[in-house]
Specification:
The chain has about 70 residues and is mainly α. The protein has one domain. Helices cover about 90% and strands about 0% of the residues. It is built from 2 helices and no strands.
């Protein structure tokens, strides 16, 4: 996103939300972004654990088969 796009978005936010509510809305958006990042990280870790466990199970199955 370029400089002018950011300026346009900020200008529109200022017009539609208003100067009094803008800091509160920005704070809430920051909290939401933090929540999404935390949950995404937790999900990624859980998937990695499952994949590692599945590959270990597959290796054991391959050893039993031979």
């Amino acid at each position: 996103m370029g400089f002018w796009e950011v300026i346009l978005i900020l200008l529109l936010a200022f017009i539609f939300i208003g100067p009094q509510k803008l800091p509160r809305v920005a704070r809430e958006m920051g909290k939401g972004a933090r929540w999404l990042k935390k949950n995404y990280t937790d999900f990624k870790v859980a998937v990695a654990k499952e994949v590692d466990g599945a590959s270990a199970d597959t290796e054991r199955w391959d050893k039993k088969k031979s």
